[in-house]
Write a structure and sequence with these properties.
single chain, about 725 residues, alpha+beta, Rossmann fold, 4 domains, nine-stranded mixed sheet, six-stranded antiparallel sheet, about 35% helix
């Protein structure tokens, strides 16, 4: 997709610091370009901004014109969130992070209310004004560290406290919505900045204490509201704030059940009634089963101890928990809550961290919840529309941008790569070497260009020696990899029901850091409890790796062990299909040297192969004055040695007479002089070139692979990883076998 040449505010004109504003294939108008630039300024000031696609569902669009992303209240300020905006989408800024907002609604007496605030001397300084399509105003003010409130008639205070409670959002330019009031009523109008944000002034200013006191006084003495539900949007958002996502619904269910368990005498009747009504609304909206909701509520009542039905009867109380629940369910039947899907089909919304054991007990397994969700026609249509929107024509597919190189010819961005080798075989040295080159931007192995970027390195084993290795690398290259961030924590990928909550926190951290490379060293230490020979359980690990890749667009490099024979990667075959590439490190026996070879490259050349030596570096002295040493990877012993595809020519008579077995054997004999082995792709190319030279048709790669397997079965060919080699020495060799 095309990009503008305009750099973001605060960046240099050559783009060395500022990222480019990404646009869709539709050219931006001047007002849209200006609005996106302001949105990036908000992000630079630490204010979260997110894009929301238009809701194409005819049933829901009137009250929910845009589909909000899951857990937007927890978003951090990120430029790529702004870059997702497309014409027709909404752009939203989250309050309570870097700013609060005074929302004035003139249709409800907002101008009078605002004048009252000014007359009372409590109106704070304003550092930006956004005009809404319905003649309302969103005024940016310094943070108060309070949750939202209503300081005057027609004036809403949109904010969020330090715990994140009460956060709201406002629509900002270039969002377009239909005006509800005023001269443009019924027509689509774009939000606009009538006063561009003064973010430096906003950061330095303080909100008058009088406003804080007034907002606090306007709140009830004891506010009981579900703290986990998405805050009600501004009055300018939509008529009803029932924009329920699966994650938000689950957390509310857990919160309501916790309230029932904690309720005391005198509170249980109203608390249980409110919880039953809420769970009933979810049940009749198709999100959970009515029987499961009833059982969960009764369990919560019994867990409270003093307010069971038996306790009520003993103390002469006429009501029972069952009667309260059934009464609440009857009221809920006429007001069902529809839980919408995530903004993107690929977000795997069912894997979002849920509301705890209580919610899981009510909701049951993931597949059952998904069936309930899909039973709702509106959700089915929304899912179908989203999936349909992701269809690509051949021209669109052809115009997709190519994979961005990280280390040219070695690693690419937005990929999952495995680096395998035996224990003690220098594979972690290779991972660190790649990581340090990315962190510094140094050319790798003399000729391979490197895109400089941050690196997140999970050191799950060998933590104590890791700093020595960094010191050795720094000494060897004369530069310290400052952008290499080390996390010495074995964050586990697996939880009780899939990818763990801890891994979700890791994904959030990685998303915040925006690394170009993430190294997971090693797979075994991050998958404790998972059966590595089980394709099903390794699917959990693959999903965990994909979540990191999807959240960051980084290259995720997994360091993993080979089996005892030093051949393929250890464990289930599911890993093979998940890899974009696999590199293998093979240590030379009794030497400080190894071979690095590409075993697989899904979309590129898999013939890369180098021999490296290790350089010994003195990195310090111990308490006895003896040298402390470590290793760094030296220069390639043979610069960029690749297995070239040489010509093996056949005469016309040989082409007709020789079998596939004989041609494959001849290719291996003539091309692999040292019996180091050739990858399948090289063998296929050479065999078919030989066939072509004799005027014969090419073999399918599957046929050549089958021939190699038969030769292996006869002991003529051996396989080492992805490399095939003859088992007999070249001298005196014959063509047959």
């Amino acid at each position: 997709m095309p990009e503008t040449n305009e750099t973001r505010p605060g960046g240099s004109s050559d783009g060395s610091e500022a990222k480019q504003i990404s646009t869709s294939s539709i050219a931006l108008t001047a007002s849209q370009a200006e609005a996106l630039a302001i949105a990036h300024e908000l992000v630079d000031a630490g204010i979260p901004v997110f894009a929301a696609p238009r809701n194409h569902s005819a049933e829901l669009a009137d009250r929910m014109p845009f589909i909000l992303p899951n857990a937007w209240q927890t978003y951090r300020a990120r430029h790529d969130a702004v870059d997702r905006w497309r014409p027709g989408w909404a752009l939203c800024a989250v309050t309570g992070v870097g700013m609060d907002v005074i929302d004035t609604d003139p249709q409800n007496g907002g101008e009078v209310g605002r004048a009252e605030l000014e007359a009372a001397g409590v109106m704070p300084p304003v550092f930006g004004v956004a005009e809404t399509p319905s003649s309302g105003r969103h005024e940016l003010i310094p943070r108060t560290h309070l949750a939202k409130g209503v300081p005057a008639q027609g004036v809403d205070f949109q904010a969020g406290d330090d715990r994140g409670e009460g956060r709201a959002f406002i629509f900002i330019a270039p969002t377009v919505r239909v005006s509800k009031h005023g001269p443009n009523k019924g027509r689509p109008v774009e939000y606009r900045w009538s006063m561009k944000p003064d973010l430096e002034g906003l950061k330095a200013a303080e909100t008058p204490a009088a406003l804080i006191e007034r907002i606090g006084a306007a709140k009830p003495a004891q506010q009981i509201e579900p703290t986990v539900r998405a805050p009600v949007p501004t009055s300018d958002a939509w008529d009803e704030a029932e924009d329920w996502t699966p994650a938000g619904a689950d957390r509310v269910i857990a919160d309501q059940l916790a309230r029932v368990r904690a309720a005391r005498a005198g509170q249980i009747n109203s608390t249980l009634g409110g919880a039953a009504r809420m769970l009933g609304r979810f049940a009749y909206g198709g999100y959970l089963n009515e029987g499961d909701a009833f059982s969960a509520l009764m369990t919560a009542v019994e867990a409270g101890g003093v307010h069971s039905d038996d306790w009520n009867k003993r103390n002469g109380l006429s009501w029972t928990a069952k009667s309260v629940i059934f009464s609440a369910f009857s009221r809920a039947h006429s007001e069902p809550i529809t839980v919408g899907l995530a903004a993107e089909v690929g977000n795997e919304w069912m894997d979002t961290p849920r509301g705890g054991d209580e919610a899981r007990a009510v909701l049951g397994d993931k597949s059952a919840r998904e069936r309930l969700m899909m039973a709702n026609p509106a959700n089915r249509k929304a899912a179908l529309d989203k999936l349909r929107d992701r269809l690509l024509t051949l021209d669109q597919l052809r115009n997709l941008p190519p994979a961005e190189s990280l280390i040219k010819g070695v690693l690419t961005m937005d990929s999952a790569v495995w680096l395998i080798g035996q224990a003690g075989g220098f594979k972690s040295f290779v991972a660190l070497d790649w990581a340090a080159h990315v962190a510094t931007g140094r050319t790798w192995n003399g000729t391979h260009k490197v895109r400089k970027g941050k690196v997140l390195y999970l050191v799950a084993e060998g933590v104590r020696g890791f700093m020595r290795r960094i010191d050795a690398w720094t000494q060897h290259h004369g530069e310290k990899p400052e952008d290499l961030m080390v996390l010495p924590v074995p964050v586990q990928a697996a939880g009780d029901d899939g990818v763990s909550a801890g891994w979700g926190i890791l994904v959030e951290l990685a998303s915040e850091l925006e690394p170009a490379l993430i190294v997971l060293d090693t797979q075994a230490r991050l998958t404790v409890g998972l059966e590595e020979n089980s394709n099903t359980e390794m699917g959990i690990w693959i999903s965990a790796v994909d979540k990191l890749k999807s959240a960051t667009g980084a290259c995720v490099l997994v360091v993993h062990h080979t089996g005892r024979n030093g051949g393929d990667a250890r464990g289930a075959s599911a890993l093979d299909g998940a890899q974009d590439a696999e590199w293998k490190v093979t240590r030379k026996e009794h030497e400080l040297a190894f071979t690095l070879a590409c075993d697989k490259n899904k979309d590129g050349d898999d013939s890369a192969r180098w021999d490296f030596g290790m350089a010994v570096k003195v990195v310090g002295v111990d308490e006895d004055g003896e040298e402390i040493t470590s290793l760094a990877i030296g220069a390639a012993l043979e610069a960029d040695r690749r297995t070239a595809v040489r010509e093996v020519e056949l005469t016309a008579e040989e082409g007709r007479a020789l079998s596939a077995r004989q041609i494959v054997t001849r290719v291996l004999d003539e091309m692999d002089e040292h019996r180091d082995g050739l990858p399948l792709a090289v063998i296929v190319t050479a065999v078919n070139r030989a066939r072509k030279s004799a005027g014969q048709d090419a073999y399918k790669s599957e046929s050549i692979r089958a021939t190699l397997n038969r030769l292996r079965g006869d002991g003529v060919v051996a396989r080492n990883g992805a490399q095939y080699a003859l088992t007999w020495a070249r001298e005196g060799a014959t063509e047959g076998a």
